[in-house]
Amino acid sequence: MPEPPHEFHSERRMKISIKNQFQTALAKAEKRSKEQKNADQKDGKNKSGKASQKKEPPRSG
Question: Is 0.85 surpassed by the pTM of this model?
Answer without folding.
Answer: no
